[in-house]
Design goal:
Shape: globular
Distance between the termini: 31 Å
Structural class: mainly alpha
Number of strands: 0
Number of helices: 17
Strand content: under 5%
Mean pLDDT: 83
Low-confidence stretches: 1-11, 58-63
Radius of gyration: 22 Å
Helix content: 55-70%
Largest sheet: none
Length: 425
């Protein structure tokens, strides 16, 4: 009887620990909607991760930190080396040192997901959170305000130039986050099979929200995710026999067609983007929101510092020095940009060839893991989210910035945990 009581207490304790872990990780995902609050739960996870790692036992499965450590070193070691000769030593050292906390925070998530029931409930809660964010944005679009009272138009935009921001107001990050998490929603839709809500309501609403944010970089991320998945289905010869893929593609095409046809604002935005295909560099620059001007400056920096780069987050400090006098970002009172709005350019500029090789190896690892899957599993969905969040084609937030790095390393941790959970099952 006494042994039974001890066992029951242990199980109860593990469940309580599990609920606490889910709550902390979910708070971090909720914090992404804010400017700074996300750092508090992530900071707690980092401290807890250090404590848990110090108490680890070699014979327990959750202590397998090797893949995470190797992946982290691939990015962090070039950052350290680039800091040695950084153009903005203080800023680079601060970035490199604070970047360290992502490692124990990710370890905490992996540890938590190894506890009974945590991975299952974490996936469920993240999915519910995504659904809330989508329909909150739909409410903002049709009523002018969301649940929190945030208006449809941002503080720096006119009413007729409104974009959906949802819970991320005033930052325009809604579509970026939703594009990255699209595989998680697709996996849920696949598992629900022929139910009405996922196909007729959730998927069209999800795509509608991403389109109506008018974030071209998010559209590219969404396209990258769809392209990866289509390639996977073709290689696994599951394309034609998968009713899920056929229905999803049909809904995607119909939703985009209806929105483009009925939405004059979106049609105008798409017309402006035709400058990409004009062949005129100036028109391409305008169509890309003057990204070409940033990349030209980045190219000049790379030519000067090719091996180790100028140090993490150093782009803003030398922008004027390496730019031409007529550079768009130096006209009309502008003083440059904080980052080059390109993962490839940023990595090359700030950590050089060595940094790019580390980034390439890290990305290749998840490409390998993705195509190693045999079917559309939850592990594949999380791997695909990592491929999207760190896609070389991304042109939005800073690669080494705290916000996007926080998001990316949380996804990496869940992805690694999902793979281990699947193989152990």
């Amino acid at each position: 009887m006494q042994i039974g009581s001890v066992d029951s207490y242990t199980v109860t304790q593990m469940r309580i620990e599990g609920y606490v872990c889910v709550a902390i990780i979910l708070l971090a995902f909720c914090g992404l909607a804010t400017q700074k609050l996300v750092h508090y739960p992530v900071g707690f996870m980092a401290i807890a991760g250090i404590f848990l790692f110090s108490l680890r036992r070699v014979d327990t499965p959750h202590t397998s930190i090797s893949p995470l450590l190797i992946l982290f070193v691939l990015l962090w070691l070039p950052m350290c080396l680039a800091t040695i000769g950084a153009v903005a030593m203080k800023h680079s050292i601060s970035t490199t040192l604070t970047y360290l906390h992502f490692l124990p925070a990710a370890y905490f998530i992996m540890y938590a997901c190894s506890r009974p029931g945590v991975y299952f409930w974490l996936q469920k809660c993240i999915l519910w959170l995504i659904v809330f964010v989508v329909f909150d944005a739909m409410l903002q679009f049709f009523s002018g305000f969301n649940v929190l009272g945030y208006p449809h138009h941002g503080p720096n935009r006119a009413t007729d130039d409104a974009v959906l921001t949802g819970v991320f107001y005033p930052k325009e990050r809604l579509a970026l986050v939703l594009s990255v998490l699209f595989p998680i929603v697709l996996h849920y839709i696949k598992e629900t099979r022929l139910k009405l809500f996922p196909y007729v309501i959730l998927l069209p609403s999800y795509l509608f929200v991403i389109l109506m944010t008018f974030k071209r970089s998010a559209w590219v991320m969404l396209a990258v995710g769809v392209a990866y998945l289509l390639l996977f289905l073709v290689l696994k010869r599951a394309m034609l026999k998968s009713l899920f893929s056929i229905r999803s593609i049909l809904i995607l095409v119909v939703t985009v067609s209806v929105v483009v046809t009925l939405g004059s604002t979106l049609s105008d935005r798409l017309s402006k983007n035709l400058g990409f295909f004009s062949g005129d560099l100036e028109q391409v620059d305008v169509a890309s929101n003057y990204r070409i001007s940033l990349w030209k400056t980045g190219y000049e920096i790379v030519k000067d510092r090719p091996v180790l780069g100028i140090g993490p987050r150093g782009f803003r400090h030398v922008y004027e020095e390496y730019s031409e006098a007529d550079n768009f970002w130096l006209q009309d009172g502008r003083d440059g940009q904080t980052h080059p709005h390109s993962n490839i350019v940023e990595v090359f500029v700030e950590t050089g060839i060595l940094g790019f090789l580390g980034y390439l190896l890290l990305y290749s690892y998840f490409v390998f893991r993705f195509f190693r899957e045999e079917y559309f599993s939850d592990s594949l969905a999380w791997s695909l989210s990592v491929l999207i969040v760190w896609c070389p084609l991304n042109t939005h937030l800073a690669f080494y910035g705290s916000y996007w790095s926080t998001f990316a390393w949380m996804l990496v941790a869940i992805s690694l945990a999902s793979f281990r959970s699947q193989t152990s099952d």
